[in-house]
């Protein structure tokens, strides 16, 4: 029985190709593994950086927050909101005002809507969101009650900040407050 040269060449090329793929397969796998490890290390470094940045952010005094916000007048100033968030802690108030109030606007009673922070990290985003929600519910007992029933302004702000986009933030805000005018402004401020 005789095998043609073309069949032998095809068989030889197939075997050579299979051996070449077998030899390079582990190299590709090793490269993929190295890339995966590098991505995991980068993600871990980002988490550590975020934790370190958040450590410098003063903690909002959660106990009684809704009552303090409810006692504010409608359309409170940034100063009033910060005082409600950090009662009796002048250092925390000063740090928050430095982040929340635009340059030179601290004494002018600027509203938190539209405030642009410098060097945002998660904790400051939550602080800004608490301020936006606080300005929204200030002086409105019904909205304060709704926020309290949901678990509080701070809990709601943390959830809203974690939402992926504005539509998700709006859905959370509707779940907390219902269909109320002004929710879109809070969703934008908490983003």
UniProtKB/TrEMBL annotation:
Q: Which InterPro entries match?
A: TAT_signal
Q: Organism source for this protein?
A: Streptomyces durmitorensis
Sorted alphabetically, the keyword list is:
Signal
What lineage is this protein's organism placed in? Bacteria, Bacillati, Actinomycetota, Actinomycetes, Kitasatosporales
**Signal sequence: where?**
1-22
Report the superkingdom from the record.
Bacteria
UniProt-recorded name of the protein: Secreted protein
């Amino acid at each position: 029985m005789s095998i043609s040269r073309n069949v032998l060449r095809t068989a030889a090329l197939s075997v050579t190709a299979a051996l070449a793929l077998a030899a390079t397969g582990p190299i590709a796998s090793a490269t993929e593994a190295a890339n995966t490890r590098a991505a995991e290390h980068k993600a871990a470094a980002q988490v550590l950086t975020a934790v370190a940045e958040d450590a410098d952010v003063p903690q909002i005094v959660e106990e009684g927050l809704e009552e303090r916000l409810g006692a504010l007048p409608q359309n409170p100033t940034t100063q009033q909101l910060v005082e409600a968030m950090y009662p009796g802690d002048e250092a925390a108030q000063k740090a928050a005002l430095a982040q929340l109030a635009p340059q030179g606007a601290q004494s002018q009673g600027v509203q938190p809507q539209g405030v642009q922070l410098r060097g945002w990290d998660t904790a400051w985003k939550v602080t800004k969101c608490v301020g936006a929600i606080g300005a929204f519910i200030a002086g409105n007992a019904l909205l304060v009650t709704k926020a309290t029933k949901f678990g509080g302004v701070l809990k709601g702000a943390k959830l809203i900040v974690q939402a992926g986009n504005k539509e998700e933030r709006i859905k959370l805000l509707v779940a907390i407050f219902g269909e109320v005018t002004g929710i879109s402004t809070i969703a934008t401020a908490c983003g």
